[in-house]
Design brief:
101 residues, 3 helices, 4-stranded antiparallel β-sheet, alpha+beta, 25% helix
Length: 101
């Protein structure tokens, strides 16, 4: 599946969300945080349409999905979740998850 992934957060966008690059920026002298979280919307465009996922990206490689608007009306097949999971693993993050309350 061909997808285009874009972020609203400037740090994530500037380094294509690669964990090592994000970590280097966040741990830099300018920011100086060792425990951090980045909140961003992720727009995922595919041949199914445009979907949006809100995520929190943590210093320990965790990605928490906080909101999800799918490009399809199917509750079983979620192309954006599949694309986000593949992207996360490729870029050094853990598999995204949803906290059940």
């Amino acid at each position: 599946m061909d997808v285009e992934i874009n972020f609203t957060d400037i740090t994530m966008s500037s380094c294509d969300g690669e964990f090592e690059k994000v970590e280097k920026i966040m741990n830099s002298e300018d920011i100086g945080k060792t425990k951090w979280v980045i909140n961003t919307d992720v727009f995922i465009k595919s041949n199914f349409g445009l979907g949006c996922i809100s995520i929190d990206c943590f210093y320990d490689k965790k990605i928490l999905i906080t909101q999800y608007q799918s490009s399809v009306d199917d509750n079983i097949y979620n192309p954006e979740i599949i694309a986000l999971t593949a992207w996360a693993q490729e870029k050094g993050w853990s598999v995204p998850f949803v906290e059940m309350t």
